[in-house]
Design brief:
Mean pLDDT: 92
Number of strands: 16
Number of helices: 15
Strand order of the largest sheet: 6-13-12-11-10-9-8-7
Distance between the termini: 34 Å
Helix content: 25-40%
Structural class: alpha/beta
Strand content: 15-25%
Largest sheet: 8 strands, parallel
Low-confidence stretches: none
CATH topology: TIM Barrel
Amino acid sequence: MAEWIGIGRRARRCYGFDEIALVPGSQTINPNEVNTAFSLGGKKFSVPIMAAAMDGVVDVKFAVAMSRLGGIAVLNLDGIQTRYEEPELVLEKIASATPAEATALTQSVYTTPIKEKLIAKRVKQIKAKKGTAVVSCIPAHAQKFSRIAVSAGADIFVVQSTVTSTKHVSKEYKSLDLFKFCKDTKIPVVIGNCVTYETTLELMETGAAGLLIGVGPGAACTTRGVLGIGVPQVTATADAAAARDFYYKRSGRYVPVITDGGMNRGGDICKAFASGADAVMIGSSFAHAKEAPGRGYHWGMATSHVNLPRGTRIYVGTKGSLKEILFGPAKVDDGSQNLMGALKTSMGSLGAANIKQMHDVEIIIAPSIQTEGKIFQVSQRVGMGK
């Protein structure tokens, strides 16, 4: 599979969403009759599209709205919602900043210490409105924050960093023991992020309820440019799915893999499922929602890093309600609305009755899939030509 890139060095060819296409099978199914549900930590969700733990995407109101529509929105416990009693004022400042001011302002905003009382408060606010409380933090805060979140009634806890492994080495501080953490935490734990077969398999051994797959593909993330690391999402997902299937055969425990980032339209989401994902996590598409706290702006989780930002603030605009983005009717032609309608229609056209059957559809390498026959769309910058 690898090619020579120089003397003594070989590199494997990997693929992203724009380089593949899905091939219709020998049967089709009524899109209204396909099953899109997935399970995570013993809970079933009808919408397999999760909202990422980003401050421009998820707050308490958004988490509740997403829950009512059958999905999951992850609240960032390291973010603005737990640093400020009135986060709306801070979010307004970030949205009002000029592009030249945005990074420095974001860095200063996140220097305010996290208030532990706000962790419990936000979780309780979600639960009070009968929402599913899914919260996230970095490994360094996981032990302390998880105890607070669990006591407040959280349903699922996510431990997330740019790259996560079971073998983190540090003499400066004590690293999180993921095996012990998953065992001791009284609610399901999701771990991220990773992109390789070996690491996926090792992280499943910790007892995690699910894994986030993806390094640097997010619309507001600059990790790939700043650090030069990452694997295109189709290959990363396929490798992780292979590890999941091997682990299931060996242990009898099925651990969902969740493709995280790099998808901003329905077709990308469909390709992620065909690549082996059990669910997907997206940020920029939900940042378009009227309910999103970012006011049409979206920024990466590491944008605020004081020394080496690995994200940027981008303007995505407000295009519709959360319900329209998930279920339509779509009012735009770029595939960023009615994501569930796109998924169901794709599944019906491919003959896949459920998400697991999506894992078996034929995938072809098709670098012309985005441009073939689209000359007018490209010249007029509409549809797929934007």
